[in-house]
Design brief:
Two copies of one chain form a homodimer. Chain A is an alpha/beta fold. Chain A has helices spanning 15-30, 45-56, 62-86, 118-125, 151-162, 196-204, 212-221, 274-284, 313-324, 354-364, 388-398, and strands at 2-7, 34-39, 91-94, 101-104, 111-115, 129-133, 136-138, 144-146, 167-172, 193-195, 225-229, 237-240, 253-268, 289-296, 302-309, 331-344, 372-375, 378-384. Chain A binds chain B through residues 15, 18-19, 49, 52-53, 55-61, 63-65, 67-68, 70-71, 74-75, 77-79, 81-83, 85-86, 92-93, 95, 97-98, 119, 141-144, and chain B through 15, 18-19, 49, 52-53, 55-61, 63-65, 67-68, 70-71, 74-75, 77-79, 81-83, 85-86, 92-93, 95, 97-98, 119, 141-144.
Chain lengths: 403, 403
Amino acid sequence: MRVVQKYGGTSVGSFDRIKSVADRVKALVDKGDEVVVVVSAMSGMTNKLIGMAKEVSDEPSERELDVLVSTGEQQSIALLTIALHSIGVPAVSVTGRQAGVVTKGTNTRARIEDIDPSYMNEILGSGKVVVAAGFQGTNEKGEIQTLGRGGSDLSAIALASAVNADICQILTDVNGVYTADPRVVKNAKKMEEISYEELLELASVGTKVMQSRSVEFAKKFGVPFEVRSSLNNESGTLVIEEKPNMEAVVIRGVSIERNQARVTVTGIPDEPGWSGRILKALGESEVNIDMIVSNIAHDGKARHSFTMSSDDLGRAQAALKPILSNLTDGGVETEAGIAKLSCVGIGMRSHSGVAATMFEALGDAEINIGMISTSEIKISVTVEENHIEKAAQVVHDAFGLGE
Amino acid sequence: MRVVQKYGGTSVGSFDRIKSVADRVKALVDKGDEVVVVVSAMSGMTNKLIGMAKEVSDEPSERELDVLVSTGEQQSIALLTIALHSIGVPAVSVTGRQAGVVTKGTNTRARIEDIDPSYMNEILGSGKVVVAAGFQGTNEKGEIQTLGRGGSDLSAIALASAVNADICQILTDVNGVYTADPRVVKNAKKMEEISYEELLELASVGTKVMQSRSVEFAKKFGVPFEVRSSLNNESGTLVIEEKPNMEAVVIRGVSIERNQARVTVTGIPDEPGWSGRILKALGESEVNIDMIVSNIAHDGKARHSFTMSSDDLGRAQAALKPILSNLTDGGVETEAGIAKLSCVGIGMRSHSGVAATMFEALGDAEINIGMISTSEIKISVTVEENHIEKAAQVVHDAFGLGE
């Protein structure tokens, strides 16, 4: 089997951890697998390097930051390769460039344009492990570029696609993807599998397993991957293309997002253009809007409600001021201290009554629902933030996710 | 003017030093020069990185050591480029690979095979400073290789040749090349110029300004370079192709080498093959032999004498044992605590009486001469180590070098 394994900064954060990663890789090699290991910089290294740049200039150029920061992964690949040699595993390190990762776009947040896997295939073909630097590549001019947040996961998925790996394993500090945050919902269970789309919806509502861009990349190129722990040998959660039998599970998981706020603009004339003007003003002030709900009040005027992070509330109010001054009897209502609860599952498409089950469970628990929004495979509601844990638990139970 | 400047690890050893290098580069740019700056890793960094490798394995592979160690210069180029930007100097960093440095040979001590300066020329052509990583390049497979000791000097000379620089400046912690070690000979003077060949002879006798391979490379490709201080703005010593008027100076400088030992093998039959056998035995034991003197004693047997570092004396004696057992009345005499004094100058070729002047000066000072060896532009003698400083002074004076 051809396996790509990705280890994050914590997993290679000390010499001992590096040695134990080497042991894990050896176990795969011993059972005959061909292995590509993708590693991040040792934890703390990237921040340390950025700190060095800041010592020299308040505004270091992004091109040079990439030259500097990419040395972190380059050190990791050399050290892990040396550790592999020391336990008798033949291995060769490759930088992003040597892995054939061609990038495009802005430095510090480039995207992967193409991968030429010929050097990696040559190494694998000679029976050696490839140890590849995550997070980096070079553009067509040969300049070093980094991929931004979650870049090492993206590298792993992309390399897995390029070398036609059977599986890409994302080794991390959690055991997999859970039906809910286990710190909140006691009987949350690790999922055996989940579709790309479901994971994307969970990621978009705050389940921080992986950056959406990596999941999207995997979905686009059909790369199956497994999220599993770097600290034990338990199997994790397989993230794959949607399969027919997956719809049997109505709800895959429940996700919460705290620290939300609602802003409602009232007294909007029921005529075209106002929604666009409001959203544009918020966008220009870099307010990230999440849920949008709009309806007509009894006076014939429209009410637009938005949710956002509480941190954006002040910026939102300021951004809306000039708009309000153009409204005869407009107003802004704000509410902080709310949270969002979401149910995600592709089974929702073929099963009716999902919303009813969710709302009923919340009602039975005497939890009031604020805003509601739905997508094809997700239902989100807002509740008072101090009810969110109980809300998550009762909804989780209502769908039998802990069983 | 197109200038290549090379700064060593001490010159970029702290954020403040990096900023002051940036100021020096700006001064050149302000007067209209096109500049390529070659930098080493921050002082201590290379050893730190090697130490990291040693934490993981007692015998790290040389390929991976190069991947690891080359991050040191990569960090330096990014930091210096950022420092240049912060004072308004447009600049672009290039790794060894981006500088077009193609290497060949063994990792950790590769040689420069070729340089493709097109990217550097493009940067210079757009009015920007090139900040290049010394000490590194990539081989034809794209693998990172480092150049070994003195590698950054070599990079600077080679890049200067590739971009057709008018001058290559080696910025260091000395003001230039002196007629003698100023710590030993009080009135030693900084030379204005010296030929490649003279510097090579001085380097071979312990004047540690630059590694011989860099000087040889400069000589081979006709790259003029200047050794000067990174701490002040005084002009240094120009190292150039020999010119006719250079011969007017009989002796360019005086050099000393301490901690020498002499080994003499006696009782060697006056027949072919013995010299080769002795040298081979010493070579196989990694004894670096310097002077070799041979003559026939009154008994018709040959005596071979060698000088070497005192540190090699034990190894040399051990290596000679098996040979002595084949000699009827062979023996080994050893003498430690000697030092070597050399006079170097291309003027020697056209001036007679140089040896006489040297020996007379030593005789007048009642310093006994041990072994003598000569080359076309060098005369070396051994003296008792506790007389070496006085010997250097009187010979320096005899040739009027302090005037």
